[in-house]
User: What shape does this take?
Amino acid sequence: MSQRELNLGIVAHVDAGKTTLTERLLYEAGVIDEIGSVDAGTTQTDTLALERQRGITIKSAVTSFALGDVHVNLIDTPGHPDFIAEVERVLSVLDGAVLVISAVEGVQPQTRILMRALQRLRIPTLLFVNKIDRAGADDERVLQAISERLGAAVVRMSMPNGLGARDASVEPIVDDSALHEVLAENDEALLAAFVNDGSRVSHGRLLEELASQTQRVLVHPVFFGSALTGAGVDAVMTGIAELLPSSTGDPDAAPSASVFKIERAQNGEKVAYVRMFSGTIRTRDRVSLGSDLEAKVTAIAVFDEGPAVQRQAVAAGGVAKLWGLGEVQIGDRIGEAGTAPARPQFPPPTLESVVAARNADDRARLRSALTQLAEQDPLINVQQNEVLNEDSVSLYGEVQKEVIESTLVTDYGLDVEFQDPTPIHIERPRRTGEAIQILYKDSNPFRATVGLRIDPAAPSSGIEFRLDIDTLTAPLYLYKTLTSFSEHMEQYVRDTLREGLYGWQVTDCVVTMTSCAYSVPDGPPSKRGPLSTSSDYRKLTPIVLMDALEQARTAVCEPVLQVRLEVPAESVGAVIATIGQLGATAEMESLRGDLATVDTILSILAAQQLQRELSRLTSGEGVLESTFLGYEPVSGDPPARQRTTVNPLHRDEYMLQVSNRAHGKSTA
Ligand SMILES: Nc1nc2c(ncn2[C@@H]2O[C@H](COP(=O)(O)OP(=O)(O)OP(=O)(O)O)[C@@H](O)[C@H]2O)c(=O)[nH]1
Ligand SMILES: [Mg+2]
Assistant: This one.
């Protein structure tokens, strides 16, 4: 087959027109004969009942079409910030993207967040300025905002006519001299030719260079149009085919793929969406799922001119649905053992909410339903609190909460109640802390030496684990290799740091293993004894690490948001005063006509409070936009979170629990 594969994502802020554009592309490519609409609930993507009811995309969805010799797998993503995790999972499998911007609403905070992620991941991206048929569309203003607020080098690829009218049209016009100027920024030869204006460079050569620089993510071609009327969409399709790269990968190499979406088929069977990076997977192949797991692929479907169709195999470059992988999880790398998971591009959820079944008998069913939802969206991070006998989920916001609630009602027949979401805090170590438990010492209940040091690290650096031990002291008879020992120790450390001194996740630290020893049966008579087992390391690590953490102390930090308000000029005073009462300071950025922009930084609770009061303060005219900024230490008494596991600092209780568990296992 000489077909090229292109895995293309459509991303944007909410309501920019991604699903409408997806529908339009399928129509123009001849995949569908009739064009569906989001408002009528008849599109190819947005097929979930909830998506149709609400008119928003909730889950990413794959469809496909052919453009000449390019086979495009198109992934339509949700734009609402509550569903950013869906976008996150898709980004890692893309060859290129179309970032949609509304010609009326322009560049939004979400647009900037997405553009930054696309640039970090070096994903070639075309920009599509949509809705030129709507009143208020303004191409120059949007172009300016793209350069200023997205900081992107852009090339205009088309010119809209009759902006704001239903019959607005688009002419594909590229100004060679402007194109030359932008491209010359990144190319010496073009720069020389540009400065020496006598030497003209051919249009063909400029387009070639445009494709090359687009693929290197140095420039972003900008197209104008209307997904609704179809104006300008042909030029975007040409851009997709000619300017974006196709996927590469050797179909004869060992298979390697990544899982970016999981769903349950009607019969309850798990279906994994994978992007193939190399090799070929055939039905009945046994594949490894990153860790120690293996599973047999029972069926494969690939996307061919629209929906998925059953096939015997999928090769490098393609996207497929795989059946049979019962244990598979989102983010798994198929065929590659021990590959580190991709680094998150967006912040994790900042809220959590306790969920309870209204009918106490439904408790177990609620648990299993939540577990299934977490398969599809691991960031909801279902926490089962055995102490309080309740479950909670992490959330990005109110809309996501409502969606989970409706899903539990409609798909699982569960009547549930969510408590009001509360902010998720984190803990950061304040200083260095160190602790050790030594083999054969009385205070040590386990048969191993573990010494650990915890050091504070930069904000948002996460957890890093290092080994700083004499390699001869590592129990390689248990873990085979030093790497494997280090990986296991890291896992014990990460598990422990889920609940710090105040019950919150501990992060932004480096944990170093400073001492290690194991018990040798053939040592001198006084030291003879049974060999250390991996459970000695697993159970001892929490004791040592929590001792170290207690020395380090921790600072409890809360999520803070960058908040921008647009309010009528006459209410600026009242708004700034309210922000002051919330304990923050505000700056008035600019005044445009009788609208003022006010910027401030608020805790998530303060931002919610301000949102509630905004309507009264501004006679319903004010708009609040917020983006997650980071975590800041709380002032005053730090809030504690009820632990879901026993605190290793309460030694007796901890010992009772770990020995119970071991006992339970051996008699099972
Ligand atoms: N006038 C006009 N309306 C459009 C255009 N594209 C989309 N719309 C409308 O804008 C609304 C949102 O469109 P969608 O396609 O659902 O937007 P989306 O980006 O997929 O939204 P989410 O997936 O929820 O983020 C719908 O009412 C569409 O009919 C356009 O080009 N012109
Ligand atoms: Mg959509």
